[in-house]
Amino acid sequence: MASTYIAQPNQSMYDVIIMATGSEEAGMQFCFDNAVSLTDTPTVGAEYIVSDAALLLGDAIVLNYLKSNNIVLGTLGVDPLPIGLSSDNDDSELVGEDGVSPFVNE
After folding, report:
1. Mean pLDDT of the chain
2. How many CB atoms are located within 10 Å of the residue 50 CB?
3. The pTM is what?
4. Does the N-terminal or the C-terminal CB of the chain have fewer CB atoms within 10 Å?
């Protein structure tokens, strides 16, 4: 029996697929069923159909693990740099407000 999945904040389409089916292997079927692309960014609150075909391609063990441990994948919007640092190579921005570098030089 088909079910649905509602996209959560900071989720990529891969996150949605894994949360809904337990496996990336179900991705193409999931995208076909919902007329979306793997590279689309889901809208928070969007409801997606999880077909029986997608679930058969998925991984029930992973799906059960995610649900039973209340794990919600959300890999979008993650800033890998500490607040106040930029991704360019200008070392002048690596100095804190007090003029001291947060990095230890040995």
Report:
1. 84
2. 24
3. 0.71
4. C
Residue 1 — pLDDT band, cuts 50, 70, 90?
confident
Report which of 12, 41, 14, 10 is spatially closest to residue 25, judged by C-alpha positions.
14
- Spatial CA neighbour of 43 closest among 21, 19, 24, 16: 16
Three-class SS of 2-66:
CEEEECCCCCCHHHHHHHHHCCHHHHHHHHHHHCCCCCCCCCCCCEEEECHHHHHHCCHHHHHHH
The 3-state DSSP class for residue 67 equals helix
Paired tokens of 95: 């100095």
Based on its alpha-carbon atoms, the radius of gyration of the chain, rounded to whole angstroms, reads 19
